[in-house]
Amino acid sequence: MLQILIFSAVFIAIIFPIGKYLYHIAVGKRTFADPVFDRVDNGIYRVCGIDRTKEMNWKQYALAMLVTNAIMVFVGYLILRIQSLPIFNPNGIGGMEPSLSFHTVISFITNTNLQHYSGESGLSYLSQMAVIIFMMFTSGATGIAVAMAFVRGLSGKVKAMGNFYADLVRITTRVLLPLSLLVGLALVSQGVAQNLSSNLTVQTMEGKYQDIAMGPIAALESIKHLGTNGGGFLGANSTTPFENPNVLTNMIEMLSMMLLPGACVVMFGLMVRNRRKATEKSREKKVLLGSEAKPIFAVMLIILIAGIVVCFAAEQAGNPALEQAGLSQSMGNMEGKEMRFGIAQSSLFTTVTTAFTTGSINNMHDTLTPLGGMVPLINMMLNLVFGGDGVGVMNMILYVILTVFIRGLMVGRTPEYLSKKIEGKEMKLATLGIIIHPLLILASSALAIAVPAGLAGITNPGYHGLTQVLYEYASSAANNGSGFEGLADNTYFWNITTGLVMFFGRYLSIVISLSIASSLMMKQPVSESIGTLRTDTRTFTISLFMVVLIIAALTFFPALILGPVAEHMTLWS
Question: What are the DSSP calls for 497-557, one per residue?
Fold first, then answer.
């Protein structure tokens, strides 16, 4: 537990300077890096014909985002289909079949990175770099750009969302590229491979031969975590020493995936605070986290810590079935885990990668205990425990609006948030944004267990089989990408259905959130009075936590009872 406490303290310490840096980028303030990056950005603007001064409304911003992503999908699909060409393909990898190409390109453009293939045998180096790594940058940058536009709308300082193309460029060049370079160098220093060599064939101690995968692994590892992507260069992802050699790299990778989602909460607080409480510049510098962000950060942190504790306790308790078979469980449930990480580091990584919707794994989630596996499942079902780059804070704001509405009804006050009235339009959109996520998960899961094509992929009978299905669609809808790998998912049915869930789970929530922000942006602010229900108090924090808990319980509790809870009761009966 000491490892977990120290790790949490480091996380909290590093997100504040990065969050303030994102805040400066979002509002157009000068930063220490501008003399260098201005030249780079201006060159990109000239080459691409971008007018960065042109402001967009929410519809223009959303359309620019969708069209840009669609073009990337088209190009990426073509590259995957023709990757058999002898271009950065020393291992002679063949072209990807149509349904898997569709699934893969949708997976990476939506920041999900759900892999129905094994990286070292399914992709050429060209595909790894020009499709996978490229989309890891652009999908992460898209999420942060949309979050910036969303918060600009909420802040009420401007009557436009900004410029999507300028936001995308600035986030990529000023945030993702330099950070990924630093993380990549750190990983290389610890032994993570970075080359364009063909696979090595070595003779093992048993006298047999084994292929050792090579390639630009460190480059992918750095951005997969910083961009909350999660897709592994290798099929075994961060369980393998070639992606995650030791405890130090394990910590670096976890901090990398936590850094920007946490910083986005800080950015939100500073942007909103700047509107509500204009102060002299000298005093503004002392603020670490705006008051409006404190309840959001507190609820996220509470759920995260609770998940870590439950997962750790469940895995430390071991597996009674294995103990009955004569296998000692004194070290906890070590099935599917790496000895170099143990229970603590494995439980921490499992919780973090699903809370921050990264999807990278350092252990086999399918071998977790029922309650240990329920923690990442709940994280993805909630989809607001920090979440992915940018979109996590947007998802939480939907619950904030719902909480404000409920509290207003309880005392007979018109609901207000950030000095703007919450009316019918905002509530309808917020409710729709909240409902879409469980609808995608539960409806798709019901379809999968109702048709032969879906049932054919379930490799475990009973409760665990249902959990496999729930996990696959929860991972897809939350744009996480991890999976219970016992599921036989590389089929037309699973490729197409999960691809559609990833698409709608990503873009519907983004468009709805931008629409809400635009609606609030156009409203006249109302003056605070003695009857105004504040949204920066401990009371509001408790209310927000209870709303999140109740909504999640009412929505997903029946499915969880039939899956991991029933499996746990059976196992420990």
Answer: HHHHHHHHHHHHHHHHHHHHHHHHHTSPP----TT---SSSHHHHHHHHHHHHHHHHHHHH
